[in-house]
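Lab notebook, bench 4. We co-purified these components, and the gel suggests they stay together. Before we commit to crystallization screens, I want a quick structural picture of the whole thing.
Request: model the full complex, all chains together.
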Amino acid sequence: MQSINQTVPSFNKPLSTELSRQFAGKRLLRQEIQVESTVFTRLLAEQQFTATPSMVRQQWKLTCQRCGNQTPHLIGRMPCFRCQSTHAYCRKCIHMGRVSECEALYIWSGEIPGWTKHEDPCTWKGELTTQQQLAADRIVQAIDNQEKELLVYAVCGAGKTEMLFPGITAALQRGWRICIATPRADVVRELKPRLQTAYHDVSIEALYGGSPDRSGTAQLLLATTHQLLRFYRAFDVMIIDEIDAFPYHADASLPYATKHAITNQATTIYLTATPRPKDQSRLNRGKLPHVFVPVRYHGHPLPVPQLKLVWSLKKHIQHFTIPKELSDWLINRKQPNRQLLIFTPTIMLAERFYTPMAALLQNLGIIEHTEQLATVHAEDPNRTEKVQQFRNKKLLVLITTTILERGVTFPSVDVAILAAGHTVFDEAALVQIAGRAGRSGDDPTGEVIFFHDGKTDAMVQAIHSIKKMNHRAGLE
Amino acid sequence: MHCLWCHDSILVEVSWGNVFMPSRRSPLCSACTNKLQLLDGRRCVRCSRYSNQTVCGDCIWWKDIFQDEDPLAWNYSVYHYNDPMKEMISRWKYRGDYLLGEAFRWPFIDAFKQSFLKWDKAAILVPIPLSVVRHRERGFNQAEMLTAFLDRKSVALLQRKDGEKQSKKSRQDRIFAENPFRMKKTINKPVILVDDIYTTGATLRHAANVLKQQGCPKVCAFTLIRG
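Here is the predicted assembly.
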């Protein structure tokens, strides 16, 4: 021991604390731990880091321990120069660095940093409505009693973020670590400034692919669910926003990641406006504790979508022409000064409809020049700027794919879906899209219209569930 | 079967071309195959770049630098370096998704047959090496993987000193940097250098220079991509 001490200086207290801040609650590859190899060897010897196998073989199945992937075609084999043998690696989570069989995943097992116990962290001075307060109280109760899970089933525009504040405050008062995870990077970006103003003196970080923050050492973390793959037994409170959103509900590695990112006594809170059938049935059987918020923060009912049959829709889509029904609706809108969101099922349609739509809108006098119309989709590099311009009313009409179906709020819009019968518009998507209208208290109504060439189950279900929520709120 | 790039399932089309050769079936789905652009049409005879001239401006510049003694006779490439290809290369090479290289196997073999089979039969393949540090980091050398696709004798003749990544350097830095290569042994046969990408041609010329100085009669290059 003496000799080691001479070659590598012993860690003094501040350095050790700094390391624990940096690595506590994480499960990392060696390449992600940026310390020199002498220091790292020592940390391992002192059992500050524990090596765990990165891929585990059970019977015939290999499982990536970071993302839980077992799918055979997503596990590759490679001849490795490092260990001079051929072994497996995970292709699923490779964008976060390669997990190979010959390398371990390292878990911090040293000192656990004490997080600050904030006495009065919340600097948000707004007030909650009665309905919001009820839900907020239930969330606080769940966190206080360390309940395992709680589903907050709140309609679009119920003010979910504000409802979380009392719960977050309670957790911060106990010195707990909190994560708010959501499947979409746009939502993380939008949440960060709101939370930073609400919790002025708390360290907050936003993690998403390409984010400026990357260390993941804050007490309150906002992250896309993908980023949780790097965390292990880290959070005492986990809040998952929009659990029904793509890709969380479709990708098994994301629930796996959230499950591993929380401590054993943690409380997980799910937020959704449109629970998937799996959660819905657990809810109905009373297996999933939940709280229901059927009314929007401004107290007005949700706009119920109108259905409009367009016989020749297929033809219009093939030739990229505007159906007469759509232009009729545009002319007869009750509030023509509202902005307009037009959803299309595919990127190709969104782009090809730009020119005919621009001509029509100019003819009708809805826009003055073509710069007030834009298309936006997931592969668009300028999508953030375009959404911002729409907010500033530089853009009046936006043709979009489903990327704007959730997480974005514009005060006063009308919403139309072209080809609402397409499979991308499932019930959840339709409810979310309808929920973009009437978000502000100043203009609580908005028109929602689905153009289709044959009703689908999704449309019927979506309208049914919107009506049901209005009914539960006593607004019908 | 699943597409190596987008992981969607592929319905394999069995045709007379591949019914007896299951291995020839493309591991990419047709949508992903179409995103990659094979180099065709008019190109520079010396470096494979799209060009209306027989020899492009780049190559004339190189010719001036070396005063007509360019160590690299010519380069032939298979793919154009478009955006989908950039993403694919980044996952294959930098993230280290070894298996993705399989997507290039048959186009690479076919291009080799087309352009090199009639060239000197005695020529030997030499993959451009990685430095030991980088090789350990990545776990595999993409140039060696490409070389292994081809049915021709290959020798790891070269060794590379550790240095900054080429992709992090500017054009000027690449061209006038110190030669990072060293020969392990000499050779008296013509050589085909194999690498994944020809960007400025500096790396390949450094390698060709070393080979030439040690008595190699002729050096040309076969690369997957013309950047």
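Chain A touches chain B at residues 31, 73-74, 76-82, 89, 91, 94-95, 97-98, 100 (CB under 8 Å). Worth comparing against the SEC data before the next meeting. The CA atoms of residues 28 and 468 of chain A lie 46 Å apart.
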